[in-house]
Amino acid sequence: MLSRTDLRGRVPAAAELRATLPRAGTDVDAVLHQVRPLVEDVRARGVEAALEYTERFDRVRPASVRVPAAELDRALSELEPAVREALVESIDRARKVHADQRREDVTTTVVDGGTVTERWLPVERVGLYAPGGLAVYPSSVVMNVVPAQLAGVGSLVLCSPPQAEFGGCPHPVILAAAALLGVTEVWAVGGAQAVALLAYGGTDTDGTELAPVDLVTGPGNIYLTAAKRILRGLIGIDSEAGPTEIAILADETADPVHVAADLISQAEHDTLAASVLVTTSESLADAVDAELATRVAATKHTERVTEALRGKQSGTVLVSTVDDGLRVVNSYAAEHLEIQTADARAVAARVRNAGAVFVGAYAPVSLGDYCAGSNHVLPTGGFARHSSGLSVQTFLRGIHVIDYDSAALREVAGKVVALANAEDLPAHGEAVTARFEGER
Fold it and tell me: Which of 4, 53, 74, 421 is deepest in the core (most CB within 10 A)?
């Protein structure tokens, strides 16, 4: 079922390797011309425009953008007990991991009388997005809200698309997750119009102010991503997320049942989802293909999974050695990377580029999606070469505080003047020397 790329005996240099590996093709630039007028319309007309686009794209028009508190309470009270228990466990584990990410302020004494302090302050107001297209993602509510809360963000608003079958509210499980986390402000708006409304704010249909945010996080479709790109600068964003992806580095010790099940689990998200196997074992590749043939036919979303696995973004890459496999997966820089090899921990320690690394036979990606405690909002499309996943740091800003007394400034004044003159900015130096005019 999976196409094959044979790199045994030769792993190309970096540029050729990146061009050779399977990768989902999404062109955000191609939809910018569609999204920009929408963004400008929401800027000009606010909630009315956002609701019109919601009615067009989601085929439902909520009575108001902000979801009434009673709807959150009702969703939580009606939540299936097993799902509630699972969400509570997910929240507890995520809080445990993310609590250790909070940075402390640090003061460095550069010279006597001269210090620089790095302060870490939370973003004041953030908009968190939980998708609601092919699937419903209460787990994304957890993954966005927990690090924001632990960073100390004082004002949170959660956006999720309204659902016609639920009277124009977001899916009840989304609302229940928000209620469990103590989020009281939820907007029933999705897609590009959600990002625009978060950026510009507005006045709701009942006269309530919808305050703009400083930062927007959370994954979405290509149109939402385009809106993030257009509005970046007015607001901060976490990333431009593309289709989800898994890479599995495996040798002959891997269980083909595990590998096939994990490839399918990622393909279940989206027809553009990428499932890539990198292996030293052709016999494992054959066994995985055989297992896929059986399991894909039996899974719930057969058509979606089949299209994803047969797409150009998915495939098997054969390599001669685990070292070569590491070169491949480090070049690929997967959102999710599983290591299913002998001595998996040692191999995982050599991974340089991945959104998250899952070690051994009993750490599937779906564990990270829900209950590992890690965050599942991760860089896609090779962005893991330079970017991190969502964390407490996403919601913090570092501010340097410079505190020098007269003696400390005088000591370095000549060097400031020398550098200012070297850059032909003499007034910079004069801003220092003016403080000592009249002194010997």
Answer: 53
